[in-house]
What does this fold into?
Amino acid sequence: MGENMSVEKARKRYIPMSETMFYILLSLKQERHGYAIMQHVKELTKGRIRLGAGTVYSSLGKLEGDGLIKSIREEDRRNIYLITPLGKQILHEETERIAELCFNYKEAL
Amino acid sequence: MSDQKTVLFPAFRYILPSDYENWLEQMAAEGWQIDHIGQWSSIVMSFRLCEPKKYRFVYDPQVSPRKEYIPTYEEFGWEYLGRMASAHIWRMEYEGERPQAFSDQEGLVERNRRNLTAVSISFFIFLATVLSIGVWLGFAVDSLSAGDRIQLVIAGVFFGVILLALGYFMMQMRKKLQK
It folds into this structure.
């Protein structure tokens, strides 16, 4: 699996995407460790989403295992992660899907 | 009143991780504290009477956690109490909003699935052990001494009882998770 996961397989697994996965991927457009991701998501959502330690830890493991993010270095026993090209593509496709939902909703009003 | 309390088979009384967490939280609120979890804590747990505290506990099954597992939880403010088998136990003192280690439904479902998998693996290991003892007794009964036969029967009964308990535990867990 890992870096070899195909785009097709990643689409099936991640689209539609949970809010947790969406915000973790979005946060990793910049290098961040687990705690920094939680802080960034809390700030982005004005405190609405407070990711828990278990959720962050297991989500990072899953995303890294599937090749959507990668660990680029270790600092103070913490891994620093960054989104991969595959992760960027999946995030982009999910954003397009959500934009289509919003567009159709507004059209229906 | 004694300032020590011993509870037998706690992990078998509170089958779901959330039940186990709530029970520990209730004990802490009544002043019964535990500062360390070890491999035997699923069989016996000793609490000491202290000042009542508001703690949130987390039961997190992780068979082989990555290196960053403990640092991640610690950075979020959790205190590590230890592990029993594959379950890691954490706690955090709080006031107001109850802290959550699993902040989404997906994470909770995944945690419960990992727990069921861990119990299922133990069940199949004990099943293989009991079957091996049975086959051994069946095929090699004539070549065994009376003493060896008795030892094997005792071992078979012992592992069989654990197997039945694990099977019951697994069924109850599945039922509760389906609910």
Remarks:
- Residues 50 and 112 of chain B are 31 Å apart (CA to CA).
- The first strand of chain B starts at residue 4 and ends at 8.
